[in-house]
Amino acid sequence: MSTNEPEYFSAYENFALERSPSGVLTVRFHTDGGPAVFTGTTHRDFPRLIEEIAYDRDNTVIVLTGTGDRFMTEIDGPSLGDFTKPMSADVAYVEGRRGIQHLVNLEIPIVAAVNGPVSVHSEYVLLADVIVASDTTVFSDFPHLASGIAPGDGLFVVWEEVLGLNRARHLEITQGSFTAREALDWGAVAEVVPLAQVLPRAQAIAEGMTQRPQLTNRYMAMIFRQRISRRLAEGMVLGFALESLTAANLAYLPPA
Amino acid sequence: MSTNEPEYFSAYENFALERSPSGVLTVRFHTDGGPAVFTGTTHRDFPRLIEEIAYDRDNTVIVLTGTGDRFMTEIDGPSLGDFTKPMSADVAYVEGRRGIQHLVNLEIPIVAAVNGPVSVHSEYVLLADVIVASDTTVFSDFPHLASGIAPGDGLFVVWEEVLGLNRARHLEITQGSFTAREALDWGAVAEVVPLAQVLPRAQAIAEGMTQRPQLTNRYMAMIFRQRISRRLAEGMVLGFALESLTAANLAYLPPA
Amino acid sequence: MSTNEPEYFSAYENFALERSPSGVLTVRFHTDGGPAVFTGTTHRDFPRLIEEIAYDRDNTVIVLTGTGDRFMTEIDGPSLGDFTKPMSADVAYVEGRRGIQHLVNLEIPIVAAVNGPVSVHSEYVLLADVIVASDTTVFSDFPHLASGIAPGDGLFVVWEEVLGLNRARHLEITQGSFTAREALDWGAVAEVVPLAQVLPRAQAIAEGMTQRPQLTNRYMAMIFRQRISRRLAEGMVLGFALESLTAANLAYLPPA
Amino acid sequence: MSTNEPEYFSAYENFALERSPSGVLTVRFHTDGGPAVFTGTTHRDFPRLIEEIAYDRDNTVIVLTGTGDRFMTEIDGPSLGDFTKPMSADVAYVEGRRGIQHLVNLEIPIVAAVNGPVSVHSEYVLLADVIVASDTTVFSDFPHLASGIAPGDGLFVVWEEVLGLNRARHLEITQGSFTAREALDWGAVAEVVPLAQVLPRAQAIAEGMTQRPQLTNRYMAMIFRQRISRRLAEGMVLGFALESLTAANLAYLPPA
Amino acid sequence: MSTNEPEYFSAYENFALERSPSGVLTVRFHTDGGPAVFTGTTHRDFPRLIEEIAYDRDNTVIVLTGTGDRFMTEIDGPSLGDFTKPMSADVAYVEGRRGIQHLVNLEIPIVAAVNGPVSVHSEYVLLADVIVASDTTVFSDFPHLASGIAPGDGLFVVWEEVLGLNRARHLEITQGSFTAREALDWGAVAEVVPLAQVLPRAQAIAEGMTQRPQLTNRYMAMIFRQRISRRLAEGMVLGFALESLTAANLAYLPPA
Amino acid sequence: MSTNEPEYFSAYENFALERSPSGVLTVRFHTDGGPAVFTGTTHRDFPRLIEEIAYDRDNTVIVLTGTGDRFMTEIDGPSLGDFTKPMSADVAYVEGRRGIQHLVNLEIPIVAAVNGPVSVHSEYVLLADVIVASDTTVFSDFPHLASGIAPGDGLFVVWEEVLGLNRARHLEITQGSFTAREALDWGAVAEVVPLAQVLPRAQAIAEGMTQRPQLTNRYMAMIFRQRISRRLAEGMVLGFALESLTAANLAYLPPA
What we know:
The structure is a homohexamer.
Chain A: E1 15-19, E2 24-29, E3 37-38, H1 40-55, E4 61-65, E5 74-75, H2 86-105, E6 110-114, H3 123-126, E7 130-134, E8 138-140, H4 143-146, H5 155-163, H6 165-173, E9 177-179, H7 180-185, E10 191-193, H8 195-209, H9 214-250
Parallel strand pairs in A: 2-4, 3-5, 4-6, 6-7, 7-10
Antiparallel strand pairs in A: 1-2, 8-9
Helix pairs in contact in A: 1-2, 2-9, 5-6, 5-9
């Protein structure tokens, strides 16, 4: 186990990283130390960070969490660029498919600690192998339809997979939401606990996993993600293209 | 928005079509204005109608419903032809795979208003993007096993997808049924309401969707149906062939 | 219907076979007449037995069950060979993928009678078309992680399919279990009954099925297993390879 | 065999249809009786025509050909609409994927009689089950790159399938072409004959096929097209989306 | 290496087996010691034999060959049963898909020694990893269309894979043939040699392979057959069903 | 177009990068300025470099080439680690699948300039969209079987795709090779030129492509790589696992 902190731990402004002696790496989304606001910077850095984590063999288990009382509920749209121009939307295409694809292909087990509402990129946590959610958590997809564009990033594949096709469709189309408790009933999350216990509980599960051979944990994660990795590869390459077309279309709509 | 009613609105004897100013097209199955009896004519017309709807860009959202107190519970077997002869069964093969495949490939969102029991072709409504069912609705598959043939049309794929593999299998094999309320618990339908509110509620959801850009609605539907479209293509080409073989086999069975 | 008992009925020491006049073949796992202990012999014989059953056209429906008060909870690890050597693990690879693949490709409907706890190869019964479980049944996966190896046989595909991806993952990773009642709620099993009624109920369902044309039952089973057959083929060829690598890795770990 | 000519024989202005007593339907592309110029009308009518052919069981084998000394080398771009607007490009998306998908899913065998150069939609003929090409035939893809858009319709899937991935890629990217003789060497076409013999030879092959049971011919075509049908379904839904994005992008490019 | 000959070496009347000291197993098709005539017995025994070979770890490389001056050119149709009855055709379905699937899933490398014309089940040899063909060899598919039924067994998948889609289609549809030399040009076979050298050359290649670690040879074979194994699984389950329908249809045709 | 050279241009010791004013990025493999020797460093850096290239939108077309009179013929095995230990082989697994997957998913067109023999990782160049090879080029796979391990990296998928299944298998199994001229005949490469013209010709093709809209080039590359990207994802995850098992097995073999 290396003693010095790797360079990438402090290289990305929206991600705080901390590693336990057994190699459990807690990755925390934040903005200036508070709840994360999703920006173009977050979008750009996410796939790069996940690749660095993948290559660092001192990471044994990942804990993915947010800051404060919410996982992620705000987005800075303009910082992501002007999606009505296809060449500009292509930047998000390149980064977006890599973000989720790198995450699902990460050979390291992921435990999510969902610390409250998540209305932006809930697929980040719903993709995790074990999901602990606070009883204050509500899941929804806010940005896509609010911006008038179709939800073509990995969210739709993950929702379809973990909620079922018909739940995923009606919730997205009617801009609905679901609670951690409902997610538990539906099998989408593993445990619901009070907010204060979310991170400790997730870290305890992760530490417990480190008692097993590292390769066993890695290949168990790969085995279970085989199919969803492929579905995401197929789904996102189409989804982003259709999403970008709906964005390009906005330029030709009459003013609302 | 064109002012004259398109020709296909009145071209098919088992389908009543009505379109709202915003382009919501309500497609209602019926027989002589009453509850629909599924016949060879319905089977022949269904894929043709769906293609016409697809090409008409004034259709923004589809509402699919039945007439009276049931969606569809009767079938006129003889009108569908003699399935024991493979060349005759092939007519149903050609039309049947096209009906469901055209429906799932329709780029227009579909809201189902399930107005009561459906024991014939429940996949028509369970394929919809948003499903509103009356509290009187019971889903089952009557015709296949009653006729002694295997259920190889799209129903088995849709049931497997929206109920789960094991629920779909045991319900079909034991000729069971499930209520709208159970379907809601299982995530197969979105809402259960009293019968009188089924159509108004479905139409209200559809009208709400028309507030969004039309292309956004279209591509959201396509995104979410990507996988089931492919599964139906694969599943039906095999399913119909096996179903037809079980029909051809009937000619060689000893009299019951 | 042949009157003499086929040779394979008595050829395999861990399987007791009995066939009713209508061709319902009850296949019972056992060890010396008591609850089954899974051994290298069971592993070797299972794919061979399933192939023999497949070729015998007098078998109309299969009932799969265990002996006594549990389906299977014990395993004799050493009898399966030394998995740390890849050439030795390859024996299990060859037999293991054939066992499950032959089972899912069997053209005969399968009714499972789950007579109590199953912590070894629960995929055998969860793959069945109709599953009747005793109220004493608890499902889990004991051997893989207890031996320090990743679960790469068909179990992971079947759990993912019948429990959902996220339930399957967290239950496996946290070495959890689920009851027959939970399995019923989740749609994984069809019925939960008292232990004494498990086998009679399963056999009654099977006998009921024999009232239909045999080919109809066969092709219904094939239709519903089309997708999971393919997923198992893909999943197991990878899963066993990764599982064997985690076993080979054990030879290089420091003593615990 | 019906004696009256069906209505659809004369319903489409760019298609001349003629049927032999044995049911061989010759479908000839033309513009005012001369070589075909591909227009928005051709694009709109093609999927509709193929569906009508599919439903008419008097059609036993299709012969697909062009008029005069070329199969198709001209296209009227403006008649297809303004692809830089996504809502307008969506019309081509709807029709384009249906045209090729309906063709490959047609249960009737197709013999192509390629009567000279084809630089527009060569996938129409390269998809055929048996391809007879004149020695004057040269295959290329003119319209896509000439218009500055990516080739995302079915052509890329068909070229990849019948030429091989690397040949298809470099020919498209370098805007190259290949002769009937090369296509014969590569296995892409079945026979190369002088122009005058192309149609008679194709029709002779088709007539020969009618000596077999009609269902045998139909299911042989389906069997061989199983995989390419699926690949087209997957490939076109993505390809058209990406092609439309490259068209939408044209509006933002600096003038050349 | 066991010294006694296994029982299965002499259990199947159409297969002569011989194993070299290094474990190269030569499997020779024959009928009474002369060129093989394909019968119901051959069909029944083939999948059973392949399974036995698979379980016998003393087999290192397989050489597949025929007897005399032809690989296989004759078939005893009636011995295969009456395919016009679906329940009877189902026997061939069960055995046929297992024969090819077991062959392609065999973890042992296969070298084919094609000793002359093969017009029956050429997929057996074209599936091999390395194919040596005599210069007298001609490949074709005689039985299917001669019997009026569609070619739905594995042959169509293998021909499509090794000849290319368009070559496979036109050769089958026009009942054509191709020589060993053409197959060499097209990449379908590895070497063409005089008849007398076919078996020695194939055995020499096989012996050469045994110089490598056995597991390396096994997993190389599996790696390269991953995709065609899956395509055969998908293709045959459909193909046999459609083939059986064309057979069932024969009962309803007017006498020729 | 940025004027300063990006940092990654000089960050990787085995890769020399040079970009033309139009954005054509020539990526040249080398070792100390001479022909490249493949090492653990090359393996580690390759996926990282490709990701950096992907994110840099100033890159319009990639030219991939080697140094001197060969593309790559040497490998420093020990520098890659001890593959007999699964945890050590896992490092190569992580990097190896990312290297090829990132390359095939790169949204930038790739032109290969194959400057002579390539016996190590020929899939790097055979994956390119347009391949120019010197007439001195010979393709083979040296390292895998020379080390006694199965070829499970992306090479087998790429060879199967561009040479055909049967050519790929027999060439690999018999450790054969093929020339640029043969590759041209088989459609695997686009052009064969004298060595001195390889790079200029490749760069000229690349410069020609920059006359088109950048997004058109990008999406054309994505469209044509859709299927092989998916096949590589599926094939490599299995292939590397099997390759690693053959390496782990080496520790248990008797000394040669």
